[in-house]
Each structure stands twice: as C-alpha cells, then as structure tokens.
Design goal:
single chain, 3 strands, Rhinovirus 14, subunit 4, alpha+beta, about 110 residues, 3 helices, three-stranded mixed beta sheet
Length: about 110
C-alpha cells in the first residue's frame, strides 16, 4: 500500500438506539445507528413500528376515528370532456390539374 493516502483504520464502538452496542473496525471513531440486528424485525421475528416523522401516530389516529370500518369516499375524478371532432378536408393524391367550380358548372347536361 502507498503510505500517507489511506485513512486510519481503528477500533470503533457502534451504538444502536435500542441500547445494543458492539465493537468493530472502521475509519470512523464512533457510529450511532437507529436500528440494528438486535432490534430489526427481520432478525427478531417480532413486529416493531419504526416511527418516521410521526407517521405511526397519524395512522393510529385515523384508524381510531373509523374504528376499523371501511368508509366509502366520493370519487374525486371529474368527468372527462370529449373534444368536438374537427372536420378535415379530404385530400386526394392526383397529378391532374385542379378543376374549379366555374368549369364544373359550365358542363351542364345537354337539353333534350
């Protein structure tokens, strides 16, 4: 290894919010965690709510207000307005010259 470019690797104390702590090696002196393997539901098999900005309390408050019953809500969707169809001129692909209405009117059927 090249000397002088690597950070110092030292013994570190890792502390969790649940109170569990252990020692390991790291480039930081102390590490504080919110959740660790001693309190994480995946490792413990127990359900635990991890509160993030009061979300658990807000959910419990809403749940208590309804007493667990389903409430039908009004639909918030507005009716969709259909656009009026815009008439388009028919285009014909031809190499013949365009005829005007005056020429077409002059070609009246022959009298009998």
């Amino acid at each position: 290894m090249k000397p002088g470019i690597h950070p110092q690797y030292m013994t570190t104390k890792v502390t969790c919010a649940c109170g569990a702590s252990f020692e390991t090696r790291s480039t930081r002196k102390d590490v504080k965690l919110e959740i660790c393997s001693a309190c994480h539901p995946f490792f413990t098999g127990q359900q635990k709510f991890v509160d993030a900005a009061g979300r658990v309390e807000r959910f419990k408050k809403r749940f208590e207000a309804t007493a667990g019953k389903t409430i039908a809500r009004k639909s918030a969707k507005a009716p969709i307005k259909k656009l009026a169809a815009v008439p388009r001129a028919k285009k014909t692909l031809t190499s013949a010259p365009k005829t005007t209405e005056k020429k077409a009117a002059s070609k009246a059927p022959a009298k009998k």
